[in-house]
Amino acid sequence: MSDVVLRHGVFMAPFHPVDEDPTECLQRDFELMEWLDRLGFEEAWIGEHHSAGYEIIASPELFIAAAAERTKKLRFGTGVVSLPYHNPLMVANRIIQLDHQTRGRVMFGAGPGLLTTDAMMLGIDPNTQRDRMAESLNIILRLFKGETVTQKSDWYTLVNARAHLLPYTKPHPEIAVASAVSPSGGRLAGKYGFNMLCVAASDPTGGFDALAENWKIANEIAAENGRTMDPNRLRLVGPMFIAETRELARERVRFGFEKYLYYFNKISRAPGRYPVPAGRDPVDWFIEAGHGIIGTPDDAIAMIEKLQKKQGAFGVFCQQAHNWADFEGTKKSYELYARYVMPHFRKANANRVASIEWADQNSEEFGAKRMAAVEAMFAKHKAERETKAAAE
């Protein structure tokens, strides 16, 4: 049996439809972080995007700096910094500053950049992004170590560059690389000992089937470099929404579910990801196709256990944050998850269950003993009163 105890978090792009006030959307995102912190979630990963309208956080570092001031225990990860868009020295300095500001509550998630529209606006050839990501990570690691770096490439120049602060966390904040379908994330994780953030783990169109293979690749390359991958640091992401009943969950997500599908099918990095057949109810189709959970806490537990069966042990399940329901419904979904799903995987009630089962199995015997004790007390009292009366 694995000794990995599942932790819980969210992966927030975020996804905000273009008909809502963006300022209020960001404020609700901060409120959500406070709510998750209160409920006992361990992590929140915040995305970086610059185009396409929905994913409106351009700087995860700015968001994390504000959110960390509003929370007590929640750890924050950049989910992810798109490295080809930035000079490596700038990235290293921002992460180190956040590490100090949060006193070690920050994690550094890195990726190549998933929205092609971002790359197009910056004049970046998408074919170069994964190689640039690997190149940048190598430089950032050297800067985290306090090295002085002089290096020139076709997209950045460093001359006697050093981070003027060293990390608060020793030797540096936890580093995770994004992994979806391609093996690039697994290769980097294995080579450098990074952790993996599997952003499409539950998607039956590719991410789910790629899980085991990418983890295998990471382990093989780690072994070649004298390392061992730690499943405690493996994070899987999947979309879900839960309510007290399946019917109520379906009703609540109709608030914003079709807008979410539109964004993924027409705009985002995965056009046609959710090909709802003509005439089908989108919610029913999504559930039946296995793309995510719209149901109850028991359905959420079943989905995570399916991922565990496919992948083996992993450290964190992150819900993909979305706006399928209104804000109160969204908060309720996370509350139900904290009340019923988290304790299932933490085995928080194992002794309580054993205790009540023991009491139930022995209830007749213990009840008889209790009644006998009561009757004995009545008899004792009666005898004492009779003795006293006789003496008088």
Compute the CA-based radius of gyration.
27 Å
Unreliable spans are none
- The CATH topology of the largest domain corresponds to TIM Barrel
CATH architecture of the largest domain: Alpha-Beta Barrel
Spatial arrangement of strands, main beta sheet = 1-2-3-5-8-9-10-13
Distance between the termini: 72 Å
Summarize the structure in words.
The mean pLDDT is 94. Helix 2 links the parallel strand 2 and strand 3. The chain is elongated. With 392 residues, the protein is of the alpha/beta class. It folds into two domains: 344 residues, Alpha-Beta Barrel (TIM Barrel); 39 residues. The N and C termini lie far apart (72 Å). The protein has an eight-stranded parallel β-barrel, surrounded by six helices. Strands 6-7 form a two-stranded antiparallel ribbon.
Give me some keywords for this one.
392 residues, alpha/beta, TIM Barrel, 2 domains, 8-stranded parallel beta barrel, two-stranded antiparallel sheet, 14% strand, elongated
